[in-house]
Design goal:
single chain, mainly alpha
Length: about 575
């Protein structure tokens, strides 16, 4: 592939989403390989509990200082200035890079010193030796927010120009670094090798984006105006978003603290199930949210509000059409998925059962967590970062409260745990309390989505797409349930004719059930002429046109000056 082709901007939302989906699929696939290596090598034990706990403080730093700035603040401000003065826009990007480097360095240096006291709050249930090892792991991982913070600036530039190919390769290289750490570094450094793998992955995440960003016009220049109006605007816009992401990290902090008080391996079970359930969220929800954001921002900046609503409605319906049936399949195939992805080496049958049960519960919230980023981007495009933060923060508060109530109040004294555990066939396992965490997580996601939807449709001018969205949602849910029932029967039919005696037969069983469900889902979509199916069919044929209910509108680059139509 020629370098010019790599640098090419995506012309359509679906085209951009396709690039992001393919790359995210590759990244998530590598993530599953990473988790399989980790699970097979260490099992659901204290080593991986320490590894996952080590992420909490570095991730909190990244989220507060830089994570919220790119999607909610830097991109719309950069695009706005670029359409008026390219040289000034590049100066703003360079200045923001300096600020990010200095700010993250100072914070990481301070946190390094006080890490032992902070880790005591992250994992109060760990013993003193395990806490000290977690301190060591977290200190190494402090390199991650510094490198990823700088990388995020380059990601923002590439995102603004719709150069999604290189932008989408960065997470792949991040996972490659962690896999290298898991396979090679751990041979000499033990669990510390995983932390150095995270640092290597962060460095690769940064390096892969630099050449294309420079070829786009970026130059590192000494900042002339640290308090440039654009910098102040970015900081003002990022503050609510950063607080929201901080609340998310605090949420994960609390979940980690709770899991540390449960049976050994609970934190690992929760994280591994969480990673698997994010597969459709990342591939479908995040890809479309990332791809549609520049188009939404551009439509708002040009006062093309009908086009803004059209793009948003189309994206929400397409994502629902893809992710809701996947949610149902994940619940039906939860055991098969976990056994194929993680069932090897030191990862035992008890851990497999608990992870599968957790994944089944997580699946009820997949649709919510896939749609939340898209609705959030709709607000961000209007430079409204407060509403998503408020909705998500309330959802996080619900998650924290429910986690405490379920594990420490409801499960110990009522028969609810017994009922849920029996339904999931894990009632005899000692680590069963861990399922309270995904229950709370899924409920909180639905709460956040409902709050965002209520806030969006409270505005009268947004209600013209409400009817089509509701109608689309319910027909997709109904069709997905039918497909899920077909998948359930297909699993049982497969067992009658093929004995389950290994990894490959489990994989074929899951594939057989998935294909049967997908066939029924597509046939019903075809028979009843779902608009979403027609749009997907046109896209797969490479014939996306401006026709019908869901035609494809082109994305606009930052220097596009086409007249309003």
């Amino acid at each position: 592939m020629r370098f010019s082709a790599i640098n090419k901007s995506s012309a359509t939302v679906a085209g951009a989403a396709f690039i992001l989906s393919i790359s995210l699929l590759a990244s998530r696939f590598l993530g599953l390989i990473r988790d399989r290596i980790l699970a097979g090598k260490f099992g659901a034990g204290i080593e991986l509990d320490i590894y996952f706990a080590g992420f909490r403080i570095p991730d909190l730093i990244y989220s507060i200082i830089i994570g919220g700035a790119i999607s909610s603040a830097f991109i719309p401000v950069f695009i706005s200035y670029f359409t008026k003065n390219k040289k000034e826009a590049w100066q703003i990007a360079s200045t923001f890079l300096y600020i990010a480097f200095v700010g993250i360095s100072l914070v990481c240096g301070t946190v390094y010193i006080f890490m032992p006291k902070l880790i005591n709050l992250v994992v109060p249930g760990f013993g003193s030796e395990d806490q000290m090892l977690t301190v060591m792991i977290s200190r190494i991982m402090l390199l991650s927010p510094l490198l990823l913070g700088l990388s995020a600036i380059f990601s923002g530039v590439l995102h603004s120009f719709k150069k999604f190919f290189i932008y989408s390769l960065a997470p792949i290289f991040y996972n490659v670094g962690i896999i290298i750490g898991a396979i090679f570094f751990t041979e000499y450094l033990g669990i510390r090798g995983l932390a150095w793998g995270v640092a290597l992955g962060s460095l690769l995440h940064l390096l892969i984006q630099i050449p294309t960003t420079v070829s786009s016009g970026f130059r590192l220049t000494f900042p002339k105006h640290i308090l440039h109006p654009a910098i102040r605007k970015i900081i003002r816009l990022m503050a609510p978003r950063a607080l929201g992401l901080a609340a998310l990290q605090i949420n994960l902090w609390v979940v980690t603290a709770i899991a540390s008080t449960l049976a050994v391996g609970s934190l690992t079970v929760f994280n591994l199930a969480n990673h698997i359930h994010y597969l459709p969220i990342g591939i479908v929800g995040t890809s479309f949210a990332t791809a549609v954001f520049p188009a939404l921002s551009y439509s708002v900046s040009k006062k093309r509000y009908k086009n803004y609503l059209y793009e948003l409605s189309k994206t929400l319906r397409l994502v629902s059409y893809l992710v809701i049936p996947l949610s149902v399949l994940f619940f039906i195939l939860r055991a098969q998925i976990v056994r194929v992805v993680l069932g090897s080496g030191e990862f035992g049958w008890e851990a497999t059962q608990l992870t599968a049960a957790s994944l089944g519960i997580f699946s009820f919230g997949i649709f919510a967590y896939a749609l939340i980023p898209i609705l959030s981007k709709a607000f961000f495009a209007q430079e409204n970062t407060k509403t998503p933060v408020i909705a998500n923060t309330i959802g996080i508060a619900v998650n924290i409260a429910l986690s405490f109530l379920l594990i420490y109040v409801i499960f110990p004294r009522d028969g609810i745990l017994e009922l849920i555990a029996r339904a999931l066939k894990i009632h005899t396992l000692p680590g069963v309390y861990v399922i309270g965490l995904p229950i709370a997580f899924s409920i909180s996601g639905v709460v956040s989505l409902i709050l965002l939807a209520v806030a969006f449709f409270k505005d009268k001018k947004n209600r013209e797409v409400f009817g089509e969205l509701i109608s689309s949602f319910f027909k997709i849910v109904f069709t997905s349930i039918i497909a899920g029932i077909v998948a359930w029967f297909a699993l049982r039919l497969f067992v009658i004719f093929v004995p389950i005696d290994g990894l490959f037969t489990i994989l074929f069983q899951a594939a057989f059930a998935s294909l049967a469900a997908a066939g029924v889902y597509l046939i019903i979509s075809y028979m009843f002429k779902f608009d979403e199916f027609e749009a997907l069919k046109r896209f797969m044929r490479g014939k996306i046109k401006r026709a019908g209910g869901l035609h494809e509108a082109p994305l606009s680059t930052p220097d596009d000056s086409s007249p309003d139509t």
